[in-house]
Amino acid sequence: MEGAIDNNIPGIEAECGGVCSCATCHVYVDPAWVEATGTAEHIEQDMLECAMDIQETSRLSCQIKVSDELDGLIVRLPELQI
Ligand code: FES
């Protein structure tokens, strides 16, 4: 989420600033990257239920911990955020 905001990527609104309380940073993680990005914790899963068109690989991008292992990470954006 911070990478998207810092680089003016449209479609990531991040209204709550990354504290997992808005779901406007919803992304679809490319299936090849699901394991590397880890799993959503309960608070993220609960907030994802507020997002539109959630899919099996949906995550809130503010909850993905960035590391060198995620260099090249591919995510797609839903057509609409909340
Ligand atoms: S920025 Fe609000 S939940 Fe991610």
Describe the protein in words.
This protein has 82 residues and is of the alpha+beta class. The protein has helices spanning 2-6, 34-37, 42-48, and strands spanning 26-29, 58-60, 75-76. It has a three-stranded antiparallel beta sheet. The longest helix has 7 residues, at 42-48. The radius of gyration is 11 Å and the shape is globular. Residues 1, 14-16, 18, 20-25, 47, 60, 62 line the site of FE2/S2 (inorganic) cluster. Residues 1, 14-16, 18, 20-25, 47, 60, 62 line the site of FE2/S2 (inorganic) cluster (FES).
Please state the CA-atom Rg, rounded to the nearest Å: 11 Å
Number of strands: 3
Classify the helix fraction into a percent range.
10-25%
The ligands bound in this entry are: FE2/S2 (inorganic) cluster
Judging by the overall fold, what is the CATH architecture?
A: Roll
- Topology as H/E string? HEHHEE
Q: Which class in CATH terms? A: Alpha Beta
Instruction: Give the CA-based shape.
Output: globular
Counting DSSP H or I runs of 4 or more residues, the number of helices is 3
Distance separating the two termini: 16 Å
Q: Quickly give the structural class.
A: alpha+beta
Which key terms come to mind for this protein?
single chain, about 80 residues, alpha+beta, Ubiquitin-like (UB roll), 3 strands, about 20% helix, binds FE2/S2 (inorganic) cluster
